[in-house]
Amino acid sequence: MAKQSSTWYKCTSKKEALMTLGLGLNASAESIKRAYKNLCKKYHPDAKSDIDVKLRKAMFLRINDAYDYLIEHTPELRGGQSSSKKAKQAAEAENRGPKVYGSKVSAKDSAEKMKKLSQRADEQKRALLEKEMAKSREKANQIKSAERAAEIISDMMRSQHQDQLRKLQQINDRANKKK
Q: How many angstroms from the chain centroid is the CA of residue 141?
């Protein structure tokens, strides 16, 4: 898991962590792991993506923090840790509070920020798709123009060919009359 920046927020509830991963309250350990893995692939800062690097990094840190919180507070994800270690982790979790640039943040604020980040990512994807569609339309128009130009040239050549055939026929007719 990535090292978290001290200026980033921290999850304060299981509900908030599950919402960050896009899961419901009754999510199983397997679904948590699967969601974490998929989101990490999608928002990893080094992955090739249409989403802005800063946005991916922010989302990646947020996803890692949510998963870390769930590991601390979900026995199925922890595996075989001793009860003293579990107690120590629970005490640490109670003492830590969510922080963003030193201020407390509620689960609602965190969910709103996650939603805004997701909307921004969707807007960027939509803008890229629109650019690609415009390029495709332009290429299609160029192809249609080239096809029309080819038709015009073909018609001109056919017309010239027919004129030459008529002239040859006239010459041939004159030659036959003289005989």
A: 28
**DSSP conformational letter for 103:** B
pLDDT bin (cut points 50, 70, 90) of residue 5 is very low
Give the whole-angstrom CA distance, residue 32 versus residue 39: 11
Render pLDDT for 137-177 as a digit per residue (tens, 0 to 9).
888 888 888 888 888 888 888 888 888 888 888 888 888 88
CATH topology (fold) of 14-135: Helix Hairpins (1.10.287)
Domain ranges of the chain: 14-135
The residue count of the chain comes to: 179
121-129 — which CB contacts under 8 Å span 24+ positions? 121/51, 121/52, 121/55, 121/59, 124/50, 124/51, 124/52, 124/55, 125/50, 125/51, 128/50
